[in-house]
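Case study.
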Amino acid sequence: MAKRPFLIPGVDKRLLVKDSLKVMPDLTRRRFITAGASFGALTMLTGCDVIDSSSAEEMLKTVSKFNDAVQAFIFNPDALAPTFAESAITKPFPFNAYYSLDEAPEVDGKAWKLEVRGLVDNKKSWTLDELYQLPQVTQITRHICVEGWSAIGSWTGTPLRDFLKLVGADMRAKYVWFQCADKDGYNSPLDMRTALHPQTQMTFKFAGETLPRAYGFPMKIRVPTKLGFKNPKYVLSMEVTNDYKGGYWEDQGYNSFSGS
Amino acid sequence: MSTLTASEATASAAPAKIIQPAWVRTMHWINAVAMILMIMSGWQIYNASPLFDFSFSRDITLGGWLGGALLWHFAAMWLLMINGLAYLVTGFATGRFARKLLPITPAGVISDIKAALTFKLSHDDLTVYNYVQRTLYAGIIVVGVLVVLSGLSIWKPVQLHWLVTLFGDYPTARYVHFFCMAAICAFLVIHVALALLVPKSLRAMIIGR
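After joint prediction, the assembly is written out as follows.
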């Protein structure tokens, strides 16, 4: 899989709109490390780079991997995300993606099939009607975005662990890797322990209604123990695997575990 | 040595009097670096979803974009937390906190603030903190603890849910985190200004004397 550049402009949408063209040429690899007046000043004063940008980047990546391990260590598979009353639901629930709503995938629910690959006994693809037959539960939990904002929503669907059992997935595998229909090919790895968390859900409904296009029709994976960017929408396939296959945001530098 | 008179011995011993022990100086400057990294990357993270109707200029933020800022923030946090924890433990264990920061009496604080504002506050003996210093230093330790606890709350709102409850809920913890940062910045301005007004205090924090 092609490695994306570590620094992708256009991530802070709000910021990007504000700074627009003025800022974009500034967003270089170099700036990623040295952004900030004092670092710039320090560099000028000493006449040399205080922090070599590539070694700083390597250091930050190493610490991020260490943070993955720390988060996996403190992750308690029995700790439930707080649930809320219906009155606490955020209205309207925000649409959020790296593209506008117009550009959101339009998936034909009749033609769509969920592909199941990797370390599973039954690799059959599932139609939406077949998936709708599975027992469903509802959760009202807080969605927390990597940007800091949060919103409370109501999601209904099948616990992922029930589905993984049903298809005979190898529960000792390291990841469930999702590929989605978002433009530019969103994908994301979910560590198996989180995939088996009781609140991790294959979601088919939002607020009691069929999942709308804005929130990931026909199926999203609701993971209340992860930041929002690790909650795949418009899911096309899931693969049970021991390989770390990277992810759309993870490859750009967001911490891979990003548990909450 | 035996030929030294008593007064000579006193005179030569006096400049060697350590005002700031090595552990305080080391931890102070590690904390300074960690705090600046945390604040500057924190401003960039804030900009991704501002709590108020303003953003921080990109010239004073660290990380370049949200992802870069988060990497800095979650790396520097270890420096801040480990150093801060070591400082707290040492401060209590050596009795330095009790000796230097206590007592803090309202009357003492008021009279020292008056003296400070009229430039009559004495700085002859840097080993004894006046009431303004005691209040600011004890206060910033409390804020430092709060900024870490609120930060852990918004980093791990599920795993550390009990900690979030301490602040109310996740959005409130975000505000607490922000206001602690603001308090630290305010402290930093006053602290640096006063250190420059009394340069020997800055020297003591660098070479100890």
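Observations recorded in class. The longest strand of chain A covers residues 150-159. Chain A has seven helices and ten strands. We will return to this complex in the next lecture.
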